[in-house]
Amino acid sequence: MVKSISALNFRPPVESKTSERKGTKPLPEPTSIQQVLLLMVVHLCRKILFIDPNIKVGIYIMLVFFGSILGDVLPVPNSYFSRKDNIFNIYFVKLSWGWTMIFVGSFVYLTSSVYSCGDKTKIRKHMLRLLFATFMWFFWTKLFVTIEESYGYCSKPIVRSSNSRKQCLSKGLSWNSFSLSGHTFILIYCALIIMEEAKALVSWEAIKDHLRNEDHNRSSEESGSATPLDCLSAEQLLFVRDKYEKFTPFIRLSFIAMAVLALLWDIMLMATIIYFHSTPEKFVASVIAVLLWFFSYRFLFSRRLLGIPLPGEGSFRYMNPAQPLQMLYARRASLITKTEKTSSFMGMPFSPPKLLVKEYSEYPREILKG
């Protein structure tokens, strides 16, 4: 009798349970509240930066053209942004290229260090995109100044010299010329560069899953599904795991700063459109900025004519660097049908689809009450 009771109270050892789970994929680690809040902020910043650049370019061109015409025709009241000495103009717009290069440069260096496995040659090639952009910015801004000084005239005749514009302004006179809007050019160009370089974060969170699955595949006797990291050596995989954990918090902060800058550049662009320069001066400057962006990212870098890759191209492919936003839009479209659009938060709908509600409403109340 005692033996039968002890047999009924028998419990399998813990080792048998763990042995049953052997070979299964590991689960992700729990996320802290701080990480959830940070990811929510990053998600909001994605809404700002992950707009299709082709659509954003059209918006810029139309805003500059029609907004400038309305600003010239309609009596727009003065505001704080109409003053040239406002704090945003002095400390941000006039230093906009420096601000952009600081945060975008940090973002490009940190992300490329991870997906290039620390290869200094590949990292330098990614940084060359910003060096090329800096050269273009310097060349065109100097050209704008040269055009203004060479093809202008003073309101009153003075002695011609190489510094005629400075002499004219020093005497309290006005210099009349075709002054291309440098602010319009640099604000649009900076915003487009930020949007292009931010694409490296499209599938960044998936690298963590790839690392976990790749570790499982290499430690397990059974071969699991292939990951983008299976082409890496053991040293490269160790480097990616280490740098991904160390750099990801700083990458997210840089991404947030880039989103704030892009939003600020758009606001200051609206102020420039309304209050400063003439319509032709702003429109020509905006077209030059758009053409320069197209020439760089849609022609030179996409075809590797200078050996410079696009953002996200490295030792392993964790996303499609050529069309990352199209993949993101396709994923969103698969979650929501074409005929039904529901409000959502971070990709999750607030309410169930109408079709599901309709199906439940067709049941009798007695069945629903149970």
Question: Can you describe what's shown?
Answer:
This protein is an all-alpha fold and 370 residues long. It has 15 helices and four strands. Strands 1-2 form a two-stranded antiparallel ribbon. Strands 3-4 form a two-stranded antiparallel ribbon. Helix 6 (96-115) packs antiparallel against helix 7 (120-150) and helix 9 runs antiparallel to helix 11 (234-275). The chain is elongated, with a radius of gyration of 29 Å.
What topology does this entry show?
Blueprint: H1 2-8, H2 14-20, H3 33-49, H4 53-73, H5 87-93, H6 96-115, H7 120-150, E1 153-154, H8 164-170, E2 175-176, H9 182-197, H10 206-219, H11 234-275, H12 279-300, H13 324-335, E3 344-345, E4 348-349, H14 354-361, H15 365-369
Antiparallel strand pairs: 1-2, 3-4
Summed up, the helix count is: 15
Whole-number average pLDDT? 80
Distance between the termini: 45 Å
Radius of gyration: 29 Å
Number of strands: 4
Cα shape? elongated
Class of secondary structure makeup: mainly alpha
Strand order of the largest sheet: 1-2
Order of helices and strands: HHHHHHHEHEHHHHHEEHH
